[in-house]
Amino acid sequence: MLLTDLDPDGLNIVRCYRFGADSLANDTTTHNNGIHWLGIKTHHVQAAASTTQSQQHRTSISSTTCRDPVSLLSARDRKLARHTLARIAARCPEADTIAEQLRLQTQTMLMMNVKAEMQWLDDAGDLTDWLDEQLVDAMYN
């Protein structure tokens, strides 16, 4: 199981764990078919944004107020996301479900021009409820 943020670094982590590091580009034995990606996805951002539009701040365990649900991508973020898309196209099998999800999530993140961390998904910054839901969903789907 792999739990990542919805940002270019998190998506690149998924790519590396699933398909191997760039230094091993020619070694298909580094592909890890057992990886299941549980990280935040663009549909989580869209759902949370629609339910928290009137909410200014949320209480967090790690701080007194939680940042806005999403942050705009920086120039560095956009560059890394484009680079990740190029690496997905070059190294990942077309028929691979994770590769397709990764490509779509990266493209959607770029179109929305947002990134998000998992910490704000659950009330009070506690991910246990959200993570429980994701694990149950992963077991039955």
Automatic annotation (TrEMBL):
Database matches in SUPFAM superfamilies: DNA topoisomerase IV, alpha subunit
GO terms under biological process: meiotic DNA double-strand break formation; meiotic DNA double-strand break processing; reciprocal meiotic recombination
Pfam families the UniProt entry points to: TOP6A-Spo11_Toprim
InterPro entries in alphabetical order: Spo11/TopoVI_A (IPR002815), Spo11/TopoVI_A_sf (IPR036078), TOPRIM_Topo6A/Spo11 (IPR034136)
Signal peptide range in chain numbering: none
Source superkingdom: Eukaryota
GO cellular component: a single term: nuclear chromosome
Record GO terms (molecular function): DNA binding; DNA topoisomerase type II (double strand cut, ATP-hydrolyzing) activity
Residue stretches making up the Topoisomerase 6 subunit A/Spo11 TOPRIM domain: 2-124
PANTHER family given in the database record: MEIOTIC RECOMBINATION PROTEIN SPO11 (PTHR10848:SF0)
Descriptive protein name: Topoisomerase 6 subunit A/Spo11 TOPRIM domain-containing protein
Organism: Ophiocordyceps camponoti-rufipedis
